[in-house]
């Protein structure tokens, strides 16, 4: 097999790979749209009830409750909720500043100097249940 034939084989393989990539992308878009269309509000409620029943009946979760695992999960969820709330507050403050800038421009006032520095995030508070328990 000559060098030119090898190059032609590589080109054919590249064309076939690109065709497969396009087909995979189209298939994935179809799966995503079908998946989203399938989840109606009634089905979401039914899925929540079934999963809640299954989780409530699971023995490992009942055993984990005594070891502080649920307390750890609760503390971590509040940590993530606090972080997302802080991000939302930051976005709201940016939107407020943008609205004030637009308002000043419409009133003919010069925009303020940009000397606002973001405040540091508040320190994370350790829940009382973990203090002195040796879990940290």
Q: What are the main properties of this structure?
A:
extended; 136 residues; 0% strand; mainly alpha
Question: What is the radius of gyration computed over CA atoms, rounded to a whole number of angstroms?
Answer: 28 Å
SSE topology string: HHHH
How would you state the average pLDDT, rounded? 77
Helical segment tally?
4
Ends apart, CA distance between termini? 67 Å
Main beta sheet, described?
Answer: none
Uncertain runs are none
The structure class reads mainly alpha
Tell me the total number of β-strands. Answer: 0
Residue share in helices? Answer: over 70%
Shape, principal axes of CA atoms = extended
SS strand fraction: under 5%
Question: What layout of secondary structure does this protein have?
Answer:
Layout: H1 3-38, H2 41-57, H3 59-64, H4 69-107
Structural features, described:
By secondary structure, this protein is mainly alpha-helical. The chain is built from four helices and no strands. The radius of gyration is 28 Å and the shape is extended. The model has no long low-confidence stretch (mean pLDDT 77).
In short:
The chain is an all-alpha fold and about 140 residues long. It is about 70% helix and about 0% strand.
């Amino acid at each position: 097999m000559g060098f030119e034939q090898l190059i032609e084989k590589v080109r054919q393989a590249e064309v076939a790979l690109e065709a497969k990539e396009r087909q995979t992308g189209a298939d994935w878009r179809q799966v995503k749209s079908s998946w989203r269309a399938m989840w109606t509000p009634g089905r979401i409620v039914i899925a929540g009830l079934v999963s809640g029943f299954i989780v409530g009946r699971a023995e490992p979760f009942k055993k984990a409750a005594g070891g502080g695992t649920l307390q750890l999960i609760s503390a971590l969820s509040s940590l993530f909720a606090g972080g997302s709330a802080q991000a939302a507050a930051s976005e709201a403050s940016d939107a407020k500043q943008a609205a004030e800038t637009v308002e000043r421009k419409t009133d003919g006032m010069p925009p303020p100097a940009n000397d606002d520095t973001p405040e540091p995030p508040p320190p994370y508070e350790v829940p009382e249940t973990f203090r002195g328990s040796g879990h940290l």
